[in-house]
Design brief:
The chain is mainly β and 264 residues long. 12% of the residues lie in helices and 40% in strands. It contains 3 helices and 14 strands. The strands form 2 sheets. Strands 1-5-6-7-4-11-14-13-12-10-9-8 form a 12-stranded antiparallel sheet, covered by helices on one side. The protein has a two-stranded antiparallel ribbon with strand order 2-3.
Length: 264
């Protein structure tokens, strides 16, 4: 099942869905997909006209592939303009992923501040693509194309603070991109600290906060997006990484921050 098919599946039956093993990331399911599936359950509980503004995601434990998962959502409060929603992925009776989301309607405001310019990036055709290699790259890479333009590949011994390049979904029918797609595109990239290592070691996201620029820019699943992550600090097996996602012509799509763990 491709990304769109899984999104449609959770919309039809959020109470029980199995993430296929082809979406695995080690022993867990790809976190960007899991977050997108929880988000879909949350979005279904929110009135029209209140797009998601931010999500705070905690990966409590791995979501096992090919094992039923329930995607649950609870509205904590519906205010005049903002809905606060709590979402969960529950597997084997245990919470595996917890998401707190804020959904808010637009309002008239005198404050208007443009985003800073997108970072400079090598042209798409000049960037090295990470191929899907069975048994080498995570299984989910078959569904996401990434081309490196900043920093090094994981386990390359590159000590740059930055990692980034171009990203889009693979094997997707042409369709408008929404927030669920953006979750997958941002989380597709490995923790930037992994490029500092010279040999493979486990690493994963512990917590993740992402904010969406609304309305989402008009782009399709066939379009490439620009991604950049910056390591702000790393020690004692934890890294703190800030990142952003932009359209190819430089419009800001999302602002992200992750605390990651690295076991080396």
């Amino acid at each position: 099942m491709n990304f769109s098919e899984l999104i449609q599946a959770v919309r039809r039956s959020p109470a029980s869905l199995q993430v296929p093993a082809e979406w695995a990331q080690g022993r867990a399911s790809f976190g960007g997909l899991v977050a997108a599936l929880v988000y879909e359950a949350m979005r279904a509980q929110v009135p029209e006209g209140r797009p998601v503004r931010s999500l705070a995601i905690t990966f409590v434990g791995p979501v096992e592939p090919d094992v039923p998962v329930a995607f649950e959502a609870e509205v904590l409060r519906d205010g005049k303009a903002v809905s606060q929603v709590l979402g969960r992925a529950v597997q084997n009776g245990q919470v595996a992923t917890l998401v707190q989301g804020s959904f808010g309607a637009s309002r008239v405001s005198s404050v208007q501040v443009d985003a800073e310019p997108a970072p400079a990036m090598a042209p798409l055709d000049a960037c090295q693509e990470l191929p899907y290699l069975k048994g080498v790259t995570p299984e989910f890479v078959r569904y996401l194309a990434m081309r490196w333009g900043l920093g090094g590949l994981p386990f390359s011994g590159n000590h740059s603070r930055e990692m980034g390049g171009w990203v889009r979904l693979r094997d997707e029918p042409r369709a408008p991109v929404d927030e669920a797609h953006l979750l997958a595109l941002v989380d597709a990239w490995p923790p930037a600290v992994l490029s500092h290592l010279s040999k493979p070691a486990p690493g994963s996201s512990l917590t993740w906060t992402i904010e969406f620029v609304q309305p989402v820019a008009d782009l399709s699943t066939e379009d490439w997006c620009l991604y950049r992550a910056v390591i702000e600090h790393a020690t004692d097996g934890y890294g703190h990484i800030a990142s952003g996602l932009w359209t190819a012509d430089g419009r800001l799509l999302a602002i992200s921050r992750q605390t990651v763990t690295v076991f080396a």
